[in-house]
Write a structure and sequence with these properties.
Helices cover 31% and strands 22% of the residues. The chain has 349 residues and is α/β, with parallel strands linked by helices. The chain folds into 2 domains: 96 residues, Udp-n-acetylmuramoylalanyl-d-glutamate--2,6- Diaminopimelate Ligase, Chain: A, domain 1; 230 residues, 3-Layer(aba) Sandwich (UDP-N-acetylmuramoyl-L-alanine:D-glutamate ligase). The N and C termini lie far apart (51 Å).
């Protein structure tokens, strides 16, 4: 992947350029340790670290250009400086362009909520693969590109890592990306340049108030996924809501996408006709828009009833065959580390 620096500068018409624009950019990074020959180094001002302090190091490692807010007294030799008012905002424009907007090419399914994201995204991935699609997954535990697995460091990676990962998925021929979308990522615009096709809200309970300060701010951050769902030009946008969570009624009013609902009430699109939760499994009979689904699940817990309903909503929105959905759900035995049953011959669970 490479781009002419001049083409990146076209995205930043207000930028002041110090040095030659006649350069080829072969990588974009905000981490000085990851700089390679040909990199565009982005100097971010964080809460504790200022990337401008690492400009010289980046130059020594081969950076040919840098996005800056402050121009140093001595400009490193051979480095073109691009002075902007806010390097973070500039990064959100430049990075998706550098990687040819992979978040517009893949069909993107985003799952947000306090609980249930990891289980839901893993089941969705399995269903889509059973349906014959190539699928990437980005989540709390790991990143998966078809069968290749790498460790994840954030629920939702930063803009640069996320765009690079989505580009790798495109190169691997993926049709879908299934993502856990955190409130931090939405508030901090880590998902810039991505157009989602389907969004699922699992629930919103008290969490991350060290960052958001109030439950209203936390809910508003989650709401951004649904408010912007119909931005862009992709067809068939769908939002899936857990209507037993009080926040869903509020956020539902903020989206222009098609809506599917799930919950206990029979006024929902998906609701349980009956369910029996056992220590090691559960039986679940669901009403859905495509007929009843009679499931024998190897996962348990009432919260997983909600996870399953949310997954079904997303998969019906994506027009996945009912029989494929049921066969994967019946065979799914959980995600390692997520309410995982330990079997060691003991007479209890």
């Amino acid at each position: 992947m490479e781009k002419q620096l001049a083409s990146l500068l076209a995205l930043l018409p207000q930028a002041e350029v110090i040095g030659s624009a006649d350069k080829v950019i072969t990588d974009v990074t905000a981490d000085s340790r990851a700089v390679v020959a040909g990199s565009l180094f982005i100097c971010l001002k964080g809460a504790t670290v200022d990337g401008h302090k690492f400009l010289t190091m980046a130059a020594e490692k081969g950076a040919v250009a840098a996005l800056v807010e402050d121009v140093p007294t001595e400009v490193p030799q051979g480095v073109t400086l691009i002075k902007v008012a806010d390097t973070r905002e500039a990064m959100e424009l430049v990075t998706p362009y550098f990687y040819d907007y992979p978040g517009l090419k893949l069909r993107m399914i985003g799952v947000t909520g306090t609980n249930g994201k990891t289980t839901s995204t893993n089941i969705i991935r399995l269903i889509l693969r059973k349906a014959g699609y190539k699928v990437g997954l980005i989540g709390t535990i790991n990143i998966m590109i078809n069968d290749e697995i790498t460790e994840s460091h954030n629920t939702t990676p930063d803009v640069v890592d996320l765009q690079k990962t989505l580009y790798a998925m495109c190169c691997a021929g993926c049709d879908y990306c299934v993502m856990e979308v955190s409130s931090h990522a939405l508030a901090l615009k880590r998902v810039a340049g991505i157009e989602y096709d389907c969004a699922v809200l699992t629930n919103i309970t008290q969490d991350h108030l060290d960052f958001h300060k109030t439950m209203e701010n936390y809910r508003d951050a989650k709401s951004l996924l649904f408010e912007h769902l119909t931005d862009g030009g992709k067809p068939n946008k769908n939002a899936v809501f857990n209507m037993d969570d009080p926040s869903s009624a509020i956020i539902r009013e903020r989206t222009k996408a098609n809506v599917l609902t799930y919950g206990e009430g029979h006024d929902n699109d998906i609701y349980p006709l009956s369910f029996t939760v056992e220590p090691k499994h559960m039986q679940l009979l669901l009403h859905t828009p495509v007929g009843e689904m009679d499931l024998e699940l190897k996962i348990t817990g009432e919260f997983n009833v909600y996870n399953v309903m949310g997954v079904i909503g997303a998969m019906l929105a994506e027009k996945i065959d009912k029989n494929i959905i049921c066969s994967v759900l019946d065979g799914f035995d959980g995600v390692p580390g997520r309410f995982q049953l330990v079997e060691a011959g003991q007479p209890y669970t």
